[in-house]
């Protein structure tokens, strides 16, 4: 069941090529009352349609081309089209921003957007990917710089490390399969948060719960797991937590946790208790921990767990600035 249109105004913004792909992936899975935007410096393929508003930004800066893998060009493009972008994004209760960091457009534009939205009464969730190792240290550094800015201005920033994701794939995976996997994780992260406020649960989660967990949180990680059979809870929790995408973050330092469990009518109270216990056993007890459940037509004995840990700290140090970057 979906929320009535008048309760919350929600938009999803894709920035750059990766962000554009994300919008194309998810547009059929979102309610019609969710507004979709694409902002890119490259004007090719940006014709709007009845579902998506696509806008070429900073045309006087890039002449309708890409930002040339230079974040400062993307940033200038965003400032050049600032007023028009702001006009599009005014009046929303919640905005998701998606893009791939390391290149020029998303890396330069997204921090401008998150700073803009931080001055509005709008919940901003940013979901970004970082480069594969083979894309070079310069792109990794640019991505990390952008993430630092985004964490300071976006309510929540979920980072999907393509390099970490690569470790979960067979060595025989093709380049197309690698980027497809990255797009799928980005899509699942975005739709997972959206579903929390668009689906009515038995123990219901709503916009206020999501706001409590992610408002002003900064770095955020998401665990997703499925289980089946007698030990389905433990299996789902282990899958959610034993995840290369979570390895760089200290979950014990989380400032809030939101857990959503989806299962059929066989879901037991002791299973809900166990899931919460396993997911938060090392978390500070005084932080907000919110649990919701959705009873659906899941196959019998199947269970899905979706956990958000907000305000986490990164374990590893930032990358050193590569030579040749001023």
What is the beta-strand fraction?
A: 15-25%
Number of separate domains: 2
CATH homology group of the largest domain? Tubulin/FtsZ, GTPase domain
- H and E string: EHEEHHHEHEHEHHHEHEEHEEE
Output the number of helix runs: 11
Give the helix/strand class.
alpha/beta
- End-to-end separation in angstroms reads 52 Å
Biggest β-sheet, characterized?
Answer: 10 strands, mixed
Helix content range: 25-40%
Please report the total strand number as a whole number: 12
Shape: globular
CATH topology category name of the largest domain? Rossmann fold
Gyration radius from CA atoms, angstroms: 19 Å
Low-confidence stretches: 1-6
Q: What's the rounded overall pLDDT mean? A: 89
CATH class of the largest domain: Alpha Beta
Quickly give the CATH architecture of the largest domain. 3-Layer(aba) Sandwich
Describe this structure in words.
By secondary structure, the protein is α/β, with parallel strands linked by helices. The chain has 2 domains: 10-198, Rossmann fold, CATH 3.40.50; 219-314, Tubulin/FtsZ, C-terminal domain (60s Ribosomal Protein L30, Chain: A, 2-Layer Sandwich). The chain is 37% helix and 24% strand. It contains 11 helices and 12 strands. It has helices at 16-26, 59-62, 71-80, 82-88, 105-118, 137-153, 162-166, 175-198, 207-214, 232-241, 269-280, and strands spanning 10-15, 35-40, 52-56, 94-100, 123-130, 156-161, 218-228, 249-250, 256-263, 289-295, 302-310, 313-314. The radius of gyration is 19 Å and the shape is globular.
